[in-house]
Amino acid sequence: KDSYVPVENAKITVIQSGETKQTSIEKSEVTNSSGLTPNLELNAPPFEYSQNPSANLPYSLVDIKIEADGFLPVLVNGCQIYPDRVAYQKCELISEQSRLAKFGRQTEEIINIQPNRLVGNYPAKIEESPEKPLPPPSSGFVVLQEPVVPEFVVVHQGLPSDNSAPNYTVRYKDYIKNVASSEIFSTWPESTIRANVYAIISFTLNRIYTEWYRSKGKPFDITSSTAYDHAFSYGRNIYDNISAAVDDIFSTYMKRPGVKQPLLSQYCDGVKVQCPGWMTQWGSKYLGDEGKVPYEILTNFYGNDLDLVTADQVDGIPKSWPGYTLSNGSRGRDVRSIQTYLNRISDNYPAIPKVSVDGIYGADTERAVRVFQQVFTLPTSGNVDYATWYKISEIYVGVTGIAELRC
Questions:
Q1: DSSP secondary structure code for residue 101 in this structure
Q2: How confident is the model at residue 204 (pLDDT cuts 50, 70, 90)?
Q3: 257, CA 20 to 30 Å: which among 115, 153, 209, 238?
């Protein structure tokens, strides 16, 4: 289980190769007390390259090296940069004491980011029945009354039958952000991005709810094989708008009326592969261009008998969303809970100011929330909305269960 301890004074070196020496870029920054660097401006290809299928790569590539005293250096190859978007490269640092157990004598951790699915050479999805049989009582698996959003997802980085492939335990929201950043282009319309995120969420929660792999004796929830599941690239960068969309809708999934399990929402690109009855990624993009909202995009492909349902339970969260936004002037136990969480988080992230735990949402609490939102790349409203509530809860759980360091 991971934790949240920012690493200050880590040296971050970003290298972007160009066609000429003049178009090459090398920049270095040092992380602050929150483990962050300032935004760096880099070269990116024309916006138009990502708006229609093209032989031109829609993103540029940069390599990133992270170095900090007492930690194993990390090298990230192939971070993908789009025009007019902020790319976040989240990384974990392994202490020198822990290196031997995880990496042996390796002198640095190397992460190679895989190409986006729309431009890479990936196998097409193998068609499956959208409604899965649930594990029988004799299997020993518990079928829940309703789908629950898990705290973690165990991802198998390979084919289901490849027992040599590694398994990665990642936070559920981080998994969804990784897949969305791997499957579509972050320059697409907001409604298209949200429609694709709903499809990724629904498919993922179907795999978890039906115990699809675990009931077959597998020690994982889902794979990175596009023939069976989604593209997933361990350690890859994500994007500001995709991250914000996932934070807003991470617990909402599609289902058919009268059916408990989330829809196994299969899809394809619609250009290299055709898939009648499924969503096509490029088709969803063009509908977004037309101004269609996410539900209209989804029903265009999956039919009108489609419900969007928000799960009541989110695992690993000490207290569920109260159902309304907390803002300046709010009072009560929910405000007190947020104040308590922020004060504990500020022990690890000292840029977040301490507040009085009095149950009154005043200017000091608003300021602390705003700094929290800046540190964790949320819209800086100063209000505790749905996305901020669950992000504060997630970070609070992380800092109170410290296991390893991250930057």
A1: H
A2: very high
A3: 153
Burial grade of 101 (CB within 10 A; 0-12, 13-18, 19 or more): exposed
Please state the length of the chain: 407
Q: Does the global pTM surpass 0.70?
A: yes
Average pLDDT over residues 334-362: 97
Pairing mode, strands 252-255 and 307-310: antiparallel
Q: Which tokens is 134 given?
A: 């649930």
Block residue for tokens 């690109």: 269
Q: Are 339 and 356 in contact (CB under 8 A)?
A: yes
pLDDT digits (tens, 9 = 90+) for 21-57: 667 889 999 999 999 999 999 999 999 999 999 999 9
d(CA 386, CA 327): 12
Give strand pairing partners of 112: 77
Q: Which residue reads 């995120």 in tokens?
A: 197
CB atoms within 10 A of CB 9: 11
Which residue spans within 198-258 are E strands per DSSP? 222-223, 238-239, 252-255
Separation CA 155–CA 220 (nearest Å): 6
Q: Pairing state of beta strands 60-67 and 167-171?
A: unpaired
Per-residue pLDDT at 406 exceeds 60: no
Cβ–Cβ < 8 Å for 280, 297: no
Q: Which of these, 282, 56, 82, 48, lies nearest to 183 by C-alpha position? A: 282
